[in-house]
Amino acid sequence: MDRMARRDHLIDAARVLAVATVVVYHVLFFEVGLDGGRLTVNRWEPGRPLLVLGWFVMILPVFFIAAGFGHAASADGRAATLDGAVPRLVRRVERLAGPIGLFVTALAALATAAAWWPGAPPSLPYPGVEGLGWLGLAAAVSRDYADFLWFLVAYLAVVALADVMVRLQERWGVAVVLGLGAGAALADQLGGVARDANWALVWLACHQFGVGLRRGWFTRWPWVTATTAAAGVVVLVTVAGYPLSPIANYYPPSVAIVLLGLAQASVLALLRRAGVLRAVGAAWERRLAVAGAHLVTVYLWQAACIIVAVLALAAAGRAVSGLAAVLLHPVAVLAVTVAVIVAVVPWIARVERWLGRGTAPSGRWRVAGVVVLLTGTALVWRNGAVLHPESIWSSAGVLLVWGSALLLLRTRHRPAEQTSMDR
């Protein structure tokens, strides 16, 4: 059977939609304008109605649900043992090593050049950096930019535990996700450093919903689980004191996101039962395949594409001052950002694939590469990407990501699978 024919198009489309909503959110994250020809940037502060609406459109849990669905599907043809789990883990991580390595290298190059630049930096239209020297500016901006890596750190952890989590659900069923949810709720109550446990617990719970979706958990009563989960979110926000903002519940994630994931998995079950995207034409299959193969690249480089779009529109706004407000409207910024993404992402993906060429190292070095990549990516996420004696942890993170390249990025690859995140 053709590989395309075996895919669940609804799950593929849900994954694409999840990343698309992230791009839209980040376009809205800053309000940009021109004041006397000078670019101004302010953080967007949505009102209460938009915060409520955010719970309906922030569907990033769907990405982890789709991952669980894919991992369960790939386990269907294998014996119920953990034999071969390590090679599968390494193959999955290797597909992410090129995109992460290229992104961190580009960010480190810019941040490090800025950190060592002589003199004082000019005033920039970026919140929270007034009065900083070059090193402080480079550290702050690269740390903000590297914040995108939280998603890949969480995803790498989920991938690392995917086979174990699939087998645990086969053995213990719903008890696994109940335990993860209880752990997330406890971490919320403890607060402080304990909340960091939810970077794993919450997304593993969403991954479990994807495994359960594949195994038929939501076949009989999807409306019940969807409405119950939605009611749970309402209770957490209105009674238990959880933030109204879905973003505040994402970073770090709270047990409210577990309930949101349950609702979204239930909706996916309803759509699957209704036959949505059960059969699509060959052209749409190809479009979904191309989009799915570039999702990591889009996610990592979306901010750069947004910046290019804003700078281009600002330049046009200066040239035709009467149109500045129209040109820098979020709808215009989004349209130009999408055009930039379509134009540049395939070329970036080519570089990522080129990084994977070479000869395969031994198995033990590849396993070490997985650990080094996860550690380095986590350090860059938390500390930025400046190479400087006064930025020890960010320097260590960049060097570890580069070290993982020596261990992982010498393997041969199949281009269509380089950034596929569903197996």
Short structural description:
The protein contains 18 helices and two strands. The chain is mainly α and 423 residues long.
Architecture overview:
The chain is mainly α. The chain has one domain (4-417). It has 18 helices and two strands. The protein is globular.
Residues in β-strands, percent: under 5%
- Biggest β-sheet, characterized? 2 strands, antiparallel
Could you say how many structural domains there are in total?
1
List the helices and strands in order.
HEEHHHHHHHHHHHHHHHHH
Count every helix, treating DSSP H or I runs of 4 or more residues as helices: 18
Low-confidence stretches: 1-5, 411-423
What overall form do the CA principal axes indicate?
A: globular
Amino- and carboxy-terminal Cα gap? 17 Å
Output the radius of gyration.
22 Å
- How many strands appear in the DSSP assignment? 2
What's the average pLDDT? Answer: 89
Specify the helix fraction band. 55-70%
Helix and strand composition category: mainly alpha
Lateral arrangement of strands in the main beta sheet: 1-2
